[in-house]
Amino acid sequence: MKTDFSGKISSLILAFALAAFTSAALAESFTGGKPLSPQPDEANLKPGLSVRYFFEYFGHIDSVSVLTDGMEGEPLMNIAHRTKTGNVLTADRPMGVAAHIRGMIHLEKTGIYTFRIESNDGVRAHVGDIKIWTDPEIHGNRWSRPLEYEVVEPGWYDFKIDYYQKKGTSALQFAWTPPGETEEEIVPPEAFAH
Predict the structure, then answer these.
(1) What is the pLDDT of residues 12-54, one digit of tens each?
(2) Which stretch of DSSP H or E encloses residue 22?
(3) CA distance 4 to 153
(4) What is the pTM of this model?
């Protein structure tokens, strides 16, 4: 029996090319974001992001975004949370948790930052007052498509995430590939302040 390797290789190359094209085509681009004006006084910045918690079993991010008050939690140094059985973020419980995460992100280079967000369950994220991602309903761990955010003016940008976890496993991670870089990483703590 003769095997047609050239046909299989051609099919494989075509499949990889199509996957790469599809991935690039699915990226969303955002322009027009502006840094805070005036820029904050570095001496007055606190590390990490502030967080306020709400305890209820939510099913959609719209129910979380309209909440007020809440319970202040321990600041998040960055957004790198994933657990099967542990507490959600810095809250004191593993289920029925929503969070308003607020602060600033330092985008120190001009060019395109590619962000990606992993969530379980719902999430809505803003950078520089531009909504970059919404995944509103209950779901297992999944990543956003690439979110390409153009920075024309470096500096501190407003940063806001609304998030909820209903029950079971939970995840909230915020990753980036800065301009001129090729490796994605979780956004490091020094890039956040409040």
Answers:
(1) 454 444 444 444 458 899 999 999 999 999 999 999 999 999 9
(2) helix 5-25
(3) 54
(4) 0.86
Cβ contact 40:193 at 8 Å: yes
d(CA 161, CA 171): 13
Phi, psi of 187 (to 5 degrees): -60, 125
Question: Which uninterrupted H or E stretch holds 175?
Answer: strand 170-177
Q: Which of helix, strand or coil describes residue 69?
A: coil
b/e sequence 87-121, b meaning 16+ C-beta within 10 Å: ebbebeebebbbbbbbbbbbbeeeebbbbbbbbbb
Taking alpha carbons only, the member of 101, 104, 128 closest to residue 41 is 104
**64, 60, 86: which is closest to 138 by C-alpha?**
60
Q: Output DSSP code: residue 24.
A: H
Would the CA dihedral through 135, 141, 145, 150 be positive or negative?
Answer: positive
Q: How deeply is 169 buried, as exposed, middle or buried, from its count of CB atoms within 10 A (0-12, 13-18, 19+)?
A: middle
User: Which token pair is 175?
Assistant: 């990753």
Report DSSP state, residue 43.
G
Question: Going from the N-terminus, what domains does the chain have, and what CATH number goes with each?
Answer: 29-193 (2.60.120.1560)
Tokens of 133: 């991602």
CB 126 within 8 A of CB 174: no
Between these two residues, 155 and 9, which has the higher pLDDT value? Answer: 155
Per the CB < 8 A criterion, the answer to whether 164 and 121 are in contact is: yes
